[in-house]
Write a structure and sequence with these properties.
Elements: H1 7-16, E1 21-26, E2 29-32, E3 37-39, E4 44-52, E5 62-69, E6 75-81, H2 91-99
Parallel strand pairs: 1-6
Antiparallel strand pairs: 1-2, 2-3, 4-5, 5-6
């Protein structure tokens, strides 16, 4: 696995390696509003995880996930804050993301 110093470095590095879709968490699925892609937790795998902790500012805490659809056709990135800044997500999605943290 690669090492990245910042969230931006991780996202850019993953994009260079083919993880080009920008996914967002949407309670019980990940979505890409640009391409109208939606994947439920059972439809994708998390292949890499990069966690960043802010040295002095809790709002700098973020996780970058590299995701691939089960059929291998879609590869993208999810960024998500954790702790008190985290997104509201379903129990299934929480299990999916927690396994890989």
């Amino acid at each position: 696995m690669n090492h990245y110093d910042t969230v931006v470095d991780a996202v850019n590095g993953l994009k260079k390696r083919g993880f080009t879709i920008d996914f967002n968490l949407a309670f019980d699925q990940i979505i890409c509003s640009e391409n109208k892609y939606c994947l439920n937790p059972e439809q994708f795998e998390i292949t890499e995880v990069y966690r960043f902790e802010g040295d002095s500012n809790p709002s700098d805490e973020d996780v970058v996930y590299a995701v691939t659809s089960k059929d291998g056709d879609l590869k993208g990135v999810i960024t998500s804050a954790y702790g008190m800044y985290s997104d509201n997500i379903s129990a299934d999605m929480l299990r999916k993301l927690t396994i890989h943290q």
